[in-house]
Write a structure and sequence with these properties.
single chain; alpha/beta; 6-stranded mixed β-sheet; 7 helices; 14 strands
Length: 252
């Protein structure tokens, strides 16, 4: 084991001692063992930053292919009733089941409050406070979270931005290092330029497999969906032309 990997291993083990989870797989296994229902393809990113209410683990149900990112909190109860108890002496219980459907993305530092049901194919924007149910096939964001657009509209906007954002990535890399990157950096953009008749790069193959849609994604790729350029080199030519146009505009 090289020194760099050894240091990373030790750092991860220390995190495990202090916070309980190092990998997504460890977190999923632990939560299932405690009684939580978690489907297949669920991924916790930076699990040591995620807070899951385990006071009643049976009250949280997470579907398949759900991505929960850093800093997310999921609650099934509150302790705010402690203030009421301080006033009247009453104990006012707090409980609400949380259900998250299939194919859901929960953005960084979002909070899911008790009693919330999130449907299928839902995107929750970063830093959102979700205090009400979220309908399937929509994007939600804000404090409190509100319906922003349909997932279909989100997809259409994403398609429209693919070329611009891929070019921006290439130019940003060039401005930092003085050269263009290997094509593997564009593992989210390879539909734009990758040859459909040659064996696919391993990194690109892995992207096709995400969310359990390998066959559908591969068929779409082979159909030529999203292809604008015949090769990566042709894509880079477009980036160079865009850089030149930007420079010409700057010096006018």
């Amino acid at each position: 084991m090289c020194i760099k990997k050894l240091k990373q291993y030790i750092a991860n083990r220390l995190k495990s001692v202090t916070i309980g989870y190092v990998t997504s797989e460890e977190m999923v296994a632990s939560l299932r063992k405690q009684g939580m229902t978690i489907g297949e393809g669920v991924r916790f990113y930076a699990p040591w930053t995620i807070v899951i209410d385990v006071t009643r683990p049976f009250a949280i149900k997470i579907g398949n292919n759900v991505n929960i990112t850093a800093g997310v909190t999921i609650l099934t109860h509150g302790y705010d009733w402690s203030v009421a108890k301080g006033v009247t002496g009453e104990i006012l219980g707090s409980f609400g089941e949380v259900v998250i459907g299939d194919n859901v993305f929960i953005g960084t530092k979002s909070t899911i409050l008790k009693g919330v049901h999130i449907g299928d194919n839902v995107i929750i924007g970063a830093n959102s406070l979700v205090n009400k149910d979220c309908e399937s096939n929509f994007v939600y964001a804000g404090v409190p979270a509100k319906k922003i657009m349909s997932v279909q509209e989100y997809i259409e906007r994403g398609r429209a931005k693919q070329l611009k954002e891929a070019q921006d990535l290439a130019i940003c890399y060039f401005n930092r290092y003085g050269e263009f990157p290997e094509k593997q950096l564009f593992d989210e953009f390879f539909f734009l330029f990758e040859n459909r008749e040659k064996p696919l790069d391993e990194k690109f193959e892995k992207k096709l497999a995400l969310q359990g849609t390998y066959d559908m994604s591969k068929e779409l790729f082979l159909s030529g969906k999203g292809q604008i350029f015949e090769s990566y080199e042709e894509f880079l030519t477009s980036c160079k032309e865009k850089m030149k146009a930007m420079q010409d505009k700057r010096f006018k």
